[in-house]
Design brief:
65 residues, mainly alpha, 95% helix, transmembrane helix, membrane
Length: 65
């Protein structure tokens, strides 16, 4: 009986380790997805905050406004 319990604990420990590894891979995937979102969405918006006023100044001086 005791050996059976120890075997079950060993199996559960192995499964728990596999779940941990899988969850860490998922966490890293979501982290890199977050970084890609920042790089591909937020940074261009910040760039537009500087580009639009420069464009408006250039267009304004071209049309004499």
């Amino acid at each position: 009986m005791e050996q059976e319990i120890l075997n079950r604990l060993q199996v559960q420990e192995e499964l728990l380790q596999k779940v941990y590894i899988s969850s860490e891979k998922t966490r890293k995937y979501f982290l890199w997805t977050f970084y890609a979102t920042i790089a591909l969405f937020v940074l261009p918006l910040v760039g537009l905050m500087f580009a639009i006023p420069a464009l408006m100044t250039t267009l304004g001086s071209a049309y004499g406004i």
